[in-house]
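User: structure tokens for tRNA threonylcarbamoyladenosine biosynthesis protein TsaB, please.
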Amino acid sequence: MALLAIDTTGSDCSVALRVAGQPDLCRSDPIGRGHAEYLAPMIAGMLEEAGLQAAQLTRIGVMTGPGSFAGSRVGVAFARGLALATGAQAVGIGNLAVLAQAAGISGPLAVLHDAKRGDVILQVWTGGVATSAELLPVAEVAARIRELAGDAGHLAGSGAALIDLPQFTDLALTTIDLPALLDLAEAADAAQAPPLPFYARPPDAKLPGGRQP
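Assistant: Done. Predicted tokens:
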């Protein structure tokens, strides 16, 4: 197995590599912008460090969002193109799932992404089973979490600080854990994890004729 993981959904450009019998390689650079130009050389350097050719990759896991609109598209497009070129299998992994994996909490866990404009994206894990992600106004989130998770549990994600739930412990977990991404990408069922961007809401930009990008 040779698994490459990619995350360009935030301000960092991050890649990780898992090769059977070798320690994981993980790198995250806070570049802000320019993921499209930065990603390919970053991956090439990591493959060289591991003594691996791109053609030897067997699976590519890519973060799909929610996150930066442009960044999500960059990572997904690159992963799909590299998979096509190498014959590797590409799978998409959601950001909220990676945060939940990194939290390692067996009890109720609500993961929230700050979607701006007074909204958050919420996904709740109970007993290892996740709800569907949903976009909600901040004012409605606390009641929805109690409905899905009960009266006590844990919170994670960039939107956790926006709500007041005294019986829920904020884990202050907001950054992507690359080993957790590798774990989920390795275990993912490709049929259930297509490499497609996940957006908080439809893009504001429109192509000629009113089409969305």
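User: Anything notable?

Assistant: The helical segments are 35-50, 69-86, 95-103, 138-149, 178-187.
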